[in-house]
Amino acid sequence: MEYDIIIIGGGPAGFTAGIYVARAMYKAIIIEKGVAGGQVAISDIVDNYPGFIEIKGSELSQKMLEHVMKFEVPIEYDEVIDLWKEDRYFYVKLLSEKILKSKAVIVATGASPRKLNVPGEMEFYGRGVSYCAVCDGAFFRNKVVAVVGGGDSAFTEGLYLSNIVSKLYLIHRRDQFRAQKLYVERLKERNNVEFILNTVVKEIKGDRKVKEVILQNVKTNEIFNLQVDGIFIYIGMVPQNQILKNFKEIKYDESGFVIADETTRTPVEGLFVAGDLRSKHLRQIATAVSDGAYAGTLAVEYIQHNF
Ligand code: NAP
């Protein structure tokens, strides 16, 4: 199948790009390997996206999806396993073996949760270890959980979980937080929440399910354990950059995010990178949407000038 623009990733950046391309009357397709909406779909409450004073992440992503559908941009649920350029055209190979062809590509694959890489993390994944409070929180009603991290995700998802669980420990490796002050203050106010600071997780233990975490205070080196039924890990995101491997010209920052300015252009003509995958200071729905608007518009302009 041939398209004008293939958009890889169906989160806020990819959806916005799709809307812009369709409104310019060009033929686009969005490829999504997981849940439409990306990280937003599995976030609890969003309260900093203009126009929606407070909305559930799943609801906002559903609204975005409906917006894309209104402009009749097809969404293919499949995984991209290869992407390359030959002459002036891009080729996208899917897990289903299908090969799609296009004049331009927008990569908006975002980022996935970083792992702690401690013993027990993988063994107990789905049995007490989780990276998604909205998906798994309900299994921990009136139970004791730990949330690891000091960024916005740890705090927003901690706020969500604290409404469900009997006790929540917020474990963070420093005593300063990256999270917005508003979220920190809100979580501090909850009377079933306790902060354990300057502390790292050394191991996750249990039998059939998680029973305890082994912790270490990084100031005193003291090792101690904490009885918990679950542990939610929110220690940042790892860029989903693997599908760019064929393009040696593309540069990455020290964390693997793609270096491109706000135009979302890469050194590869016709290839754009939008959303959380792009190296940037602020990863928000608003900034992902901005990238999507740029990528959609500039990909269309690229085709107009080159084909
Ligand atoms: P983040 O802001 O990068 O924070 C990651 C946290 O995990 C930091 O506190 C970091 O500690 C800690 N950490 C990193 N590696 C660790 C390790 N190996 N062991 C223990 N702790 C570790 O990530 P995020 O909270 O997932 O947020 C990702 C992006 O989405 C951010 O730009 C954030 O602002 C945005 N976001 C926004 C909202 C919102 O506005 N409502 C909600 C969610 C996410 P240090 O501080 O010590 O490095």
Which regions contain 5 or more consecutive residues with pLDDT less than 50? none
**Envelope shape:** elongated
Mean pLDDT comes to 97
Percent helix, as a range, is: 10-25%
CATH class of the largest domain: Alpha Beta
SS-based structural class?
alpha/beta
Total beta strands: 19
Provide the CATH architecture of the largest domain. Answer: 3-Layer(bba) Sandwich
Q: What is CATH's topology name of the largest domain?
A: FAD/NAD(P)-binding domain
Strand content: 25-35%
Pattern of helices and strands? EHEEEHEEEEEEHEHEHEEEEEEEH
**End-to-end CA span:** 18 Å
Q: Main beta sheet: strand number and arrangement?
A: 7 strands, mixed
The CATH superfamily of the largest domain is FAD/NAD(P)-binding domain
Query: Hetero groups bound?
Result: NADP nicotinamide-adenine-dinucleotide phosphate
Q: What gyration radius follows from the Cα positions, in whole Å?
A: 21 Å
Query: How many domain regions?
Result: 2
Tally of individual helices = 6
Describe this structure in words.
With 307 residues, this protein is an alpha/beta fold. The chain folds into two domains: 182 residues, 3-Layer(bba) Sandwich (FAD/NAD(P)-binding domain); 105 residues, FAD/NAD(P)-binding domain (3-Layer(bba) Sandwich), CATH 3.50.50. 23% of the residues lie in helices and 30% in strands. Helix 1 runs parallel beside helix 2. It is elongated. The two termini are 18 Å apart. The mean pLDDT is 97. Bound molecules: NADP nicotinamide-adenine-dinucleotide phosphate. The site of NADP nicotinamide-adenine-dinucleotide phosphate (NAP) has 20 residues, from helix 4.
